[in-house]
């Protein structure tokens, strides 16, 4: 049997925060490997083609590498180029299209089994984000081919009756883009109004479209059933049927809680499913297993993003360095006593 490849750290996830962790590990002379089940910055790759970040370019920088964009706020294409350049120039060690199957504790070392190999590491960093698993509505007809939980571009929906479910940034962007590409758009929003978190430069646009009626919206509404050519919604105890060709369910996404549970990582809150971790070190209730990035927020996926979670990389690697120093001191003391 081939021996497992050994590293100080296995980083699960090659998103911006996973890359930031690798850069910091390299700076501190810690051996590491990033394992990613998809492509580099897989979540960003799956964003809508025309997506523009809320953050300015400087807030998306990692490893002190400047991010220069044409506009104040970079777009998807620019971000993909930036993170590719960071990974290439730093020579980061990344295995792409290699999914982690299991992580097992083996007497102070973790054995990580992937779809391609087995690794051994003292420390595990989970930076898997939240974009892989859509938050399902749980209604009849949600599995129909016309229902999409991910959105790329508006062109395919020209001339179609489109129902956009949701009232936050993604839903608003999708509603405006499809409307401008010739779709007949109806929004179904659970809350009483468009979300207060909608990008400030987009809000006037959607509010004006709703006011003039070119985009229709039902507020305090919930979809109850989707059929081949309709969407049924409940509004104020009234059932309304909307003629429909396509449903774009922008209902959000969530972390892989099953994977966290398999590692024994506990939740602080049973509803929000916020994982337990030390806010100063990012270490979970499982020794030497750390969380970084959006996954720290549980169901509150709007709490952490690239801009405010880049610091997790420094916090984690500094804690690992401190632990290694303490271990060396302890070994020296034990030798002295002997």
Write up what this structure looks like.
With 338 residues, the protein is an alpha/beta fold. The chain folds into 2 domains: 5-133 and 253-337, 3-Layer(bba) Sandwich (FAD/NAD(P)-binding domain); 138-249, FAD/NAD(P)-binding domain (3-Layer(bba) Sandwich), CATH 3.50.50. 27% of the residues lie in helices and 24% in strands. The chain has 8 helices and 17 strands. The chain has helices spanning 16-27, 42-45, 76-90, 169-180, 203-212, 257-262, 306-309, 311-337, and strands spanning 5-12, 32-35, 94-95, 100-106, 109-114, 118-126, 133-134, 147-148, 161-165, 184-188, 216-218, 221-226, 230-235, 238-243, 246-249, 253-254, 289-291. Strands 1, 2, 3, 4, 5, 6 and 17 form a 7-stranded mixed β-sheet that branches. Strands 8-15-9-10-11 form a 5-stranded parallel β-sheet, with helices on one face. Strands 12-13-14 form a 3-stranded antiparallel β-sheet, with no helix packed on it. Helix 5 links the parallel strand 10 (184-188) and strand 11 (216-218). Helix 1 runs parallel beside helix 8 (311-337). The protein is elongated. It starts with a strand and ends with a helix. The mean pLDDT is 94.
């Amino acid at each position: 049997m081939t021996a497992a490849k050994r590293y100080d750290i296995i980083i699960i996830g090659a998103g911006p925060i996973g890359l930031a962790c690798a850069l910091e590990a390299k700076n501190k002379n810690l051996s590491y490997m990033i394992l990613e089940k998809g492509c580099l910055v897989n979540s960003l790759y799956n964003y809508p083609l025309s997506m523009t970040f809320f953050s300015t370019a400087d807030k998306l920088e990692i490893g002190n590498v400047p991010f220069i964009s044409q506009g104040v706020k970079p777009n998807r294409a620019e971000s993909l180029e930036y993170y590719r350049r960071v990974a290439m120039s730093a020579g980061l060690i990344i295995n792409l299209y290699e999914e982690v199957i299991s992580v097992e504790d083996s007497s102070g070392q973790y054995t990580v089994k992937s779809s391609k190999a087995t690794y051994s590491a003292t420390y595990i960093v989970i930076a898997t984000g939240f974009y892989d698993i859509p938050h399902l509505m749980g209604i009849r007809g949600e599995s129909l081919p016309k229902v999409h939980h991910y959105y790329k571009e508006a062109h395919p929906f020209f001339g179609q009756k489109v129902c956009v479910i949701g009232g936050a940034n993604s839903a608003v962007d999708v509603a405006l883009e499809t409307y401008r590409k010739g779709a007949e758009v109806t929004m179904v929003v659970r809350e009483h109004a468009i979300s207060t978190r909608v990008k400030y430069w987009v809000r006037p646009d959607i509010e004006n479209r709703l006011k003039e009626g070119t985009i229709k919206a039902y507020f305090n509404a919930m979809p109850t059933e989707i059929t081949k050519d309709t969407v049924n919604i409940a509004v104020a105890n009234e059932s309304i049927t909307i003629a429909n060709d396509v449903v774009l369910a922008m209902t959000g996404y969530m972390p892989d809680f099953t994977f966290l549970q398999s590692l024994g990582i506990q939740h602080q809150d049973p509803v929000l499913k916020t994982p337990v971790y030390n806010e100063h070190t990012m270490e979970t209730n499982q020794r030497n297993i750390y969380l970084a990035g959006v996954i720290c927020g549980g169901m509150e996926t709007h709490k952490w993003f690239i801009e405010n979670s880049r610091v997790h990389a420094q916090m984690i690697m500094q804690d690992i360095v401190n632990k290694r120093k303490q271990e060396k001191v302890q070994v020296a003391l034990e030798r002295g006593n002997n």
